[in-house]
Amino acid sequence: MATIRNEDLIQSVADAFQYISYYHPADYIRGLAKAYEREESPAAKDAMAQILINSRMSAEGHRPICQDTGIAIAFVRVGMDVRWEGGMTLQQMVDEGVRRAYTDKDNPLRASVLSDPDGKRKSTGDNTPAVVHVELVPGDKLDVIVAAKGGGSENKSKFAMMLPSDSIVDWVLSVVPTMGADWCPPGILSLGVGGTPEKAMLLAKWGMMDPIDIQDLIARGPKSRAEELRLELYDKVNALGIGAQGLGGLTTVLDVKVNDYPTHAASKPVALLPNCAATRHQHFVLDGSGPAVFTPPDLSDWPKLALDFKTSRRVNLDALTKADLATWKSGETLLISGKLLTGRDAAHKRLVDMMAKGEPMPVDFTNRFIYYVGPVNAVREEAVGPAGPTTSSRMDKFVEPMLAKTGLIGMVGKSERGPVAIESIKKHGAAYCIAVGGAAYLVSKAIKKARVVAFEDLGMEAIHEFEVVDMPVTVAVDAGGNAVHKTGPAEWRAKIGKIPVVVA
Questions:
Q1: Do residues 16 and 403 touch, judged by C-beta distance below 8 A?
Q2: Cα separation of 138 and 49, whole Å?
C-alpha cells in the first residue's frame, strides 16, 4: 500500500506544467517533421517551418511554445489502495501545483483563467482553478495526465446528438471546414462516440492525450470500427485541403483519435475536439517514492531548419499609408518593422464603448496597425515574453467601428476573418495579415521594445506598443477583399482531388 505525500503530487504537477510549456511531445514533432517533408504548398510549408523552429527555440530557451499557456487540465486515476499524507483535497493539491507552475519567476506562464465568466471576467492571477477529472482504479499508484489547452482550439469543440443511422464521417466533414484555422492546424482531431453527452466529451478529451500513431495503424490495418473511422477520417479530412494555418496544403491533421463507449439504443452522441499546433500534455505515475522526474527530450528529434525570407517584402509601419496597402496581394509574405499597437477582446470592447459615449481614444490609431495578442510577461533581457497571435474572428464585430472611426488601417492576428470583417476591410481599403499561430517565441524575437500605452488594468489584454523588426506576416485579406483562407484551401482541395470541389 503506497503512501503519497501531498507535496509530491503538488511538485509533480508544477514541474509537469512547466515542462509542457516549452517541450512539445516528441511524437508530435516527429509527425510534424514528416508532414513538413511531404508538404507541397509553399505557404503551408513555411508555416510548418516556423512552428518547428519555434518549438526548438522554446525547448532550448525554456520559454512557452505559445503565449496562450492554456487552461490547466488533469486526469487523475487514483489507486483504491493509495493512502495520503497531508490534509489537502485532490483539487487543492492540483491547484497548488498549477499555481507554482504559472507563477514561476524564471518562466512565468500567462494567467488566462477568469472567474465570474459571464460577469466581471476577472483573472484569478495564477491560472487556478484547474479542471480535474478523477477516476478510482485498482492498485496503489497515482496515474496522472496533465494538459494545457489553449482557447483557440477549445473554442472549436463540436458536439452532436446524432441518430443511430447518421454518418459520423459526413458530420465531421461538414463541421471541420466551419472550424477554419482558429484551432491552429496541423494538429489532432479527437472523437468521443457513445455514452452520454458528457461522456462523449470526456472520451474525446482523453483521446487527444494518446501518442500520434496513425502511420503505425495504416501499416497494420484496422481491427475495430473505431480504427476504421480513424483511417477514413484521416484521409478525408486531409483531402479537404485546409492545410497548415488554413493556408491550403496536404496536411491538416497529423492524427485522428476515436474512442467509443456503449450508448443507449436511441442515441449516438459524438464529440469532436481539436488539439492545436501547441499540443501540450505529460503523463506521470506516483508510487510513494517521491515526486515525478521529467527527463528532457532528445533534441535530435527536432529538425534544424532556417527560414527563407528572400522573397518577402519589407514594410515600414511608421510610414505606411492606404496607398501602400493597395499594392499588397493576398498570400504575399511581409517583414514588418516599426511601431505596432496591440489589443484583444477586452480592449476592443472598451474602445467601442468609449466611441459610443463620444469619449476620446486613449491612443492615436491613425495609419496604424493593431496586433491581436496577449503576451506572456517578459523575463530577464526580453522586451516581451512569447507573443503569438490570438484568434482574429473574435474581433470581427469591432472591425467596422475601428476602421471607420479611429484611423486604423490594418490588423495582424491568426486565421480567417468572417464575411462582415472582410467586407469592412474592403470598404475602407485596409488590410489584414496573419502571424503563425504556434510560433509565439519566434515572433517575440522580432519585438525589440514593448510598453503599455492604455488600459493597464486589463493585464495581458492591455494595449501595448511594440517596436518590431522584421516580424514575419502573411497578407490574409488584401484591400480588395481577397482572402487567402478562401483561395488557399479551395486550390489545394482541388489539387488533392479526393473530394469533389463544390462550385458555389
A1: no
A2: 44
Fold category of 313-488 in CATH: fumarase (3.20.130)
Q: Which three cell numbers stand for residue 443?
A: 515572433
Extract the C-alpha cell encoding 316: 515600414
Domain residue ranges in the chain: 1-150+284-308, 151-277, 313-488
User: Which residues partner with 485 through β-bridges?
Assistant: none
Instruction: Report pLDDT digits (tens) over 239-251.
Output: 999 999 999 999 9
Contacts of 40 (CB under 8 A, 6+ apart): 249, 250
Please give the CATH topology (third level) of the domain spanning 151-277: 60s Ribosomal Protein L30; Chain: A; (3.30.1330)
Q: Give the max Cα distance, the chain.
A: 74
Helix, strand or coil, per DSSP, at residue 271:
strand
User: How would you class 5 by CB atoms within 10 Å of its CB: exposed for 0-12, middle for 13-18, buried for 19 or more?
Assistant: middle
Give the burial class of 502: count Cβ atoms within 10 A of its Cβ; 0-12 exposed, 13-18 middle, 19 or more buried.
Answer: exposed
3-state SS, residue 242? coil
Residue that the C-alpha cell 507554482 belongs to? 100
Question: Taking the model in full, what pTM does it have?
Answer: 0.93
Q: What is the per-residue pLDDT across 140-166, written as a single tens digit (0 to 9) for each?
A: 999 999 999 999 899 999 999 999 999
